[in-house]
What does this fold into?
Amino acid sequence: MSDDLKVWVGKPEDVHDMMDLAMAACAENGFVEPNPLRLLNEIWPSLNRDRGIMGIVGVPGEKPQGAILLRIGNIWYSDDDILEERAVFIHPDFRAAKGGRARKLCEFAKKVADELGMPLTIGVLSSHRTAGKIRLYERIFGQPSGAYFLYGVQTGEWKHAAE
It folds into this structure.
């Protein structure tokens, strides 16, 4: 199975699968209730290679197993373009499977950044399995250049409050 595992560039016809993954990611890692229209406004341009790109991991021809959403933007103090990771998400059904899906998506992000000649910002904003995610990122990207802090709420809390 892991030999058949590939990363490909998302296309407009992937929108429904990507929205499903995005909503699942928000239910797990979001700390406020997601707005599907706002998600679509980030995902759709990336599927059309309009100041962004999506990498999808899985077996071609089957349901995607995970994705990375990358957008081109500006850090608040500069006009220079940077590549910003918005989300890396592997569907829970595939997290224990062999194949290194998250690693493959991170390598995809590095390749895109190198090809565009832009710095990449990527991070972990989660309260779930954070230490493992950080170790993965350190193996792929090296030492971190900062940290996120979340005050007053835990990721996934909005979903549990709604249930």
In short: The chain has five helices and five strands. Residues 31 and 78 are 28 Å apart (CA to CA). The chain has one domain: 2-162.
